[in-house]
Amino acid sequence: MLHNPAAAAAAMEEQLRQQQLRVLLNASSRPFPSSSGSSIWPSNSSASEPVTAAGGGGEAAGGGGGGGAVSPWDIALCATGTAVACENALVLAVLFYTPSLRAPMFLLIGSLALADLLAGLGLVVNFTVQYLLQPPNAAVALSAAGLLLTAFSASVCSLLAITIDRYLSLYNALTYHTERTLSFTCAMLLLMWLLCLGVGLLPLLGWNCLRDQAACSVLRPVTKDNAAVLAVTFLLLFALMLQLYLQICRIAFRHAQQIAVQHQFIATAQATSTRKGLSTLSFILGTFALCWIPFAIYSLVADSSYPAVYTYSLALPATCNSLINPVIYAFRNPDIQKSLWLACCGCIPSTFSSRPRTSSDV
Q: What is the Cα–Cα distance from 23 to 302, expressed in whole angstroms?
């Protein structure tokens, strides 16, 4: 039977209009609209070349929100976050349940542990939002990124506060205990945390690239300009920490010389104490620099067009810094070691040394 050409053309035109309408309806139902039409959680192309959505003052690795294969990098970040949260929760528990650990120094260590605990939880939350929350919600994703920004900002600021506290304890040794009161330390920590919370709220307040994917940095959803500001601020803070630790080393070396002269110590004892301080200083700064400096520089020069594997490989060591911090600043402290032994074993080993720290112990 012959078909009417006009009727066939009209039917085809109607079918095309229906297809276009379905496409428009599907596009309007996407959770994260943007100029490029893509989501903040893009699908991974393969396990060896994951697509990331990183965010943090530090970083939040993302990708695969469309239900694709789980990236091994995301699994590694989630596992690291779990270990970080558990380790720092132990530090906070020891500080909370030991009444003798209430000095300003231990408040600073507690602030660092709390920041790293939140950073670990933030990594787990980002993994959950990325792979388990379907479809991902823009407000939830931005809140998760803000949590990481707040946590890692507070971690770096707490490290700076500990450095300043060590410097003041040597520079103003006679008046340190009267000036650095508990209330003063609490006020400074509260101010610091409010500032870091303000940084974490920036993505929710509109400082994001959800509607302009071309403006995204490797710290998605942070824009390239904002990521550059964060990276430069971090490098300046590291330069300040380096300068303060150099001053600490000089003061400690001078104090060790004065003590050696007054008590007529032999030169080898003084040299041993000085070498120990220098090794501790090198370990602290070297660990911090190796974990954070490469990622900060990469965030400064790279953008979202760079392969995601570079972001992952530099973000993972940065998150591991929160895993190392308790070892450096908490578990090496004799008072915290004593509390851990009492909590775990109910006794203190006979080989435990509880000698007071001196100015030469940087």
A: 34
Provide the percentage of residues in the chain whose pLDDT is more than 70.
69
Q: Is 346 left (phi over 0), alpha (psi -120 to 50) or beta?
A: left
Token digits for 295? 């990622």
The total of other beta-carbon atoms located within 10 Å of residue 159's CB is 24
Kindly compute the dihedral angle of the four CA atoms of residues 199, 207, 142, 58, in this order, to the nearest 10 degrees. Answer: -50
Structure token pair of residue 258: 């004065």
Apex 27 CA angle, 222 and 307, nearest 5 = 40
Tokens of 33: 């609209």
Q: Which residues contact 310 (CB under 8 A, 6 or more apart)?
A: 218, 298, 302
- Phi, psi (5° rounding) for residue 210? -60, -35
Q: Which two tokens stand for residue 349?
A: 């080993």
CB hemisphere CA count around 260 (13 angstroms) = 17
Q: Which residue has the tokens 């370990």?
A: 283
Report the alpha-carbon distance of residue 354 to residue 362 in Å, rounded.
17
Please give the span between the terminal C-alpha atoms of the chain, in angstroms, as a whole number.
97
Nearest of 142, 72, 92 to residue 309 by alpha carbon: 72
By mean pLDDT, which of 194-208, 234-248, 277-291 is the weakest? 277-291
Quick one: pLDDT band at residue 269, thresholds 50, 70, 90? low
What is the pLDDT, as a whole number, of residue 159? 92
Per-residue pLDDT, 361: 44
Evaluate if residue 29 carries a pLDDT over 60.
Answer: no
What is the rounded distance in angstroms from the CA atom of residue 68 to the CA atom of residue 45?
8
Residues 149/208, Cβ–Cβ less than 8 Å = no
